[in-house]
Task: structure prediction
Amino acid sequence: MAHDTARALRIVQLYPRDMNIYGDWGNTLTLKRRAERHGLGTEIVDYNPGDPWPENADLFVGGGGQDSGQFRVADDLAVVAPRLHEAVARGVPMLAICGLYQLFGHSFRTGTGETLSGIGIFDLETVAGPERLIGNIVTESPDLGTIIGYENHSGLTHLGAGQQPLASVVSGAGNNGQDATEGARTANVLGSYLHGSLLPKNPRVADFLLAAALELRGETLPEGELDDTLAQRARDVAASRPR
Amino acid sequence: MSRPLVRVLGQGVRWASSLRGGGSAFPGLVMEKLHPRFVAEELAKLPLGVVVISGTNGKTTTTKMTVQLLRSQGLRVFTNRTGSNFVRGVAASLLAEMDAFGRLAADVAVLELDEAHAVHFVKQVRPRISLLLNVMRDQLDRFGEIDTTRRMLSQVARATTGTVVLNREDPRIASLAQDVTEGTAVSWFGLSDALRPMFPSDDDMRDGLRQVDPGAQDSDVPSTRRPDADVVLEAVNARSVELDVRGRKHDATVDLYGVYNQYNAAAALATSLQVLGDAADVPSLVAELGKVTPAFGRGETITVQDKPLQLLLVKNPAGFRLSLASASAQDYATMIAINDQYADGRDVSWLWDVDFDALRDGGVDMVSGVRAWDMALRLDYDLVRVAAVEPDLEDALRRFIADSGERPMRIFCTYTAMLSLRRILGDMTHVAAI
Result:
């Protein structure tokens, strides 16, 4: 009951119009439903290029796009970068998948040789590779356990020397197919190539993001585990599937 | 090797492999190895040329309708009916249709080709007419990106010598009009303004829980500024549709599941008009639409234990959403079967782009397939009640039929799940051969 009067958790979807191609809605929906099941109200706000900046965001989530959509988004990101950097510094949790993950790094050189500037939340660079890395993937994160999903990207991402990966690859390609890293983590910002969608089958990652958002408001995730039987069964199957 | 000898060899392989059972494309593979130009040479002889039908959703149904419309006008039509929709599948179908003297008794070929195979095919055979239906996210694990799919269809449009028939309401398809070769005509099929909100484009899929505001969709392009279409689907009332054909209104019956199939009928009609030219008898073509029956797995109805069961193939978010929107959930017992074999698409992320709110009232009676638990999780997060989850298709199907009571049944299923379900149903009741 403590949350009846609390402000709803404000979840901002970054660029849903341009970056939405691999079930990214599943991440937003999972945050919303799990928050509700934990007894929290939610409000979902879309942010698209040129929109007024959504103030008081508790959590940001954004996904993958066509290369064409990424150009529009990169231009807008350059404008709002100071606001995002300020939020990162405050510890606001964010989930950036695939295309947005790449643009949260320094740069992305596309398959046609153009270079998109990122906003440098992560110390990483991405170059389009000769073929797409596609298939089921299992990774292991020291903080968040086994993370299971599906990857589909042509970008090869290399982390800077000090950049912490999100997880290490157990099976699949990950950031570049070479160094067994997957994704990146800085403060409470998680970047990853995993679709699936990521959060439905990885409830621990979802609850990490929710807990981080609540912590900034001086609250904690309410006691009591949710029933994640369906997610666990889906994880078991996904981990057993061929690449 | 001489051409007749190669053909006779191929026909022999076809006969031998039909004894063995299955393998519809195998004789075509033999032909492709022995005589790579076989398909191109044979199809070049057809007086009315080759029609290629491609796009993400609706190929099979639209091809079937186009073939039926043309046959109703007295044409002899060659088609690749077995769903072997690549060059060697076409070669196999050709062998099956030829007589002992190697003659193909046909005036025109109407071929269903998926986007990747279409690109390969048009390098060998330039179609006289191509019908390009839509581009939606589908099998991104094969094609990578939706813009890649569009580029494939652009190559088909460029290779077409006579007329490219395009869907006016799909922005990625409409833009192909700029890609056609000089001298090639463009013919459009389209929707009335009233119907357009029923067909959210792939780019409208993002809105998830919040419904797309119908008025906001492409509102900057009113119909008056869009190109004139030869065939417009004006209005739909259950099985009855109103079509505008080159400015004249026609009432028709299209007894297929879903308004998207009624739109496919408009596409088939527009294409038939191009094939037939001045010889087209529009009223009789419109009447023929009423006789069309569903293609396998595209809403075909199978009677099992005296109750109707519909199989509805789902391949991608747009198709699944349209399929869900086409019937009231409470009227049916509903099963969903999701596999993740190569032919289904290995990535099940797309299920999260389908809005399942429409199933909240009726709930889902059974969820099955390799990815049953993914599907059950998806429904749980859309607050849809799921009565049972059974990954094994046969166990699930038997339980679903037993528990459906008096309700008609429908099963939404991915491609390989559909093939398995048809096989299991075949042991219980009569199922038409594919």
